[in-house]
């Protein structure tokens, strides 16, 4: 399905019971987040994660009410939004991150996006964030688009999903967030000038300068320098850049100082080891849960 497909296991079809359980898990997580003082949550429906897999006709081959036409493929996303909205207070923020396109032939495309956004207009969302691609065919930072016909305007602006926002600004009722490795002030200004309700995602920039908005508001012009690996090839070079951001954001979340000199190769290895450790812990927990369920049955 993508250049990195060999890194992933073959997906399994979920039962109706498991799908309904997942919806309740989203509901529980959002409610718990509000109880703990969080201001809002973002539902991740992009990048090939579970909801994204349901949305894509390339990965969703189901023949029941969760597959086939887009109305069915989008059902999981809509049910998750509905469940969360019913569980939290009206003032609690709820947004959706969704692909502008999967960048895969036969995948979720711009027509699917427009229909999905139109349907979400009446679901009381606080924002819709536009991204693209998945971890089999990355495009979140522009990786997949190197082989696509991109306008020089898009490249200059760093905002890889700006065209999608331009198309949706007259359709979407919720504010749009444009993302894609935006680090330059002129790029952010260009995105913000799209409309009064268009926001700028600067996660990458904050991974290197956490107080960037305050410094720019004070009239400073700090330059965000993102490291590039001269060892890692192709898409792994892209993975290295993303891993550096993850490294620093993880430190920020733990109250630790960032390390602007982190090596992309080291960051990739760190992230791979962390993922393996988390997966082992999850499988251990899942096995214990299934064992306990078997005893109760």
Automatic annotation (TrEMBL):
Pfam families: Oxidored_FMN. Residues 11-216 form the NADH:flavin oxidoreductase/NADH oxidase N-terminal domain. Transmembrane segments: none annotated. GO terms for molecular function: FMN binding; oxidoreductase activity. The keyword Ubl conjugation does not apply. InterPro entries: Aldolase_TIM, NADH_flavin_oxidoreductase, OxRdtase_FMN_N. It comes from the Eukaryota. Keywords: Flavoprotein, FMN, Oxidoreductase. The keyword Glycoprotein does not apply. Belongs to the NADH:flavin oxidoreductase/NADH oxidase family. This is NADH:flavin oxidoreductase/NADH oxidase N-terminal domain-containing protein.
């Amino acid at each position: 399905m993508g250049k990195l497909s060999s890194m992933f296991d073959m997906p399994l079809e979920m039962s109706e019971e498991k799908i309904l359980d997942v919806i309740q898990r989203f509901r529980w997580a959002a409610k718990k987040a509000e109880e703990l003082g969080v201001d809002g949550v973002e539902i991740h429906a992009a990048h090939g994660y579970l909801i994204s897999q349901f949305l894509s006709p390339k990965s969703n081959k189901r023949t029941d009410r969760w597959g086939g036409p887009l109305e069915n493929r989008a059902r999981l996303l809509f049910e998750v939004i509905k469940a969360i909205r019913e569980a939290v207070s009206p003032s609690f923020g709820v947004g959706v991150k969704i692909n502008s396109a999967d960048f895969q032939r036969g995948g979720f495309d711009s027509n699917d996006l427009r229909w999905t956004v139109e349907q979400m207009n009446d679901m009381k969302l606080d924002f819709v964030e536009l991204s693209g691609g998945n971890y089999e065919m990355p495009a979140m930072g522009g990786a997949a688009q190197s082989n696509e016909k991109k306008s020089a305007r898009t490249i200059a602006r760093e905002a890889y999903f700006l065209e999608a926002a331009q198309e949706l600004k007259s359709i979407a009722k919720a504010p749009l967030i444009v993302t894609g490795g935006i680090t330059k002030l002129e790029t952010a200004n260009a995105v913000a000038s799209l409309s009064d309700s268009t926001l700028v995602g600067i996660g990458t920039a904050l991974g290197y300068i956490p107080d960037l908005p305050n410094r720019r508001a004070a009239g400073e012009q700090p330059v965000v320098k993102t490291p590039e690996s001269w060892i890692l090839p192709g898409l792994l070079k892209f993975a290295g850049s993303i891993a550096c951001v993850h490294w620093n954001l993880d430190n920020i979340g733990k109250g630790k100082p960032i390390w602007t000199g982190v090596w992309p190769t080291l960051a990739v290895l760190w992230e791979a080891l962390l993922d393996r450790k988390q997966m082992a812990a999850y499988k251990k927990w899942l096995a214990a849960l299934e064992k306990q369920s078997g005893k109760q049955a």
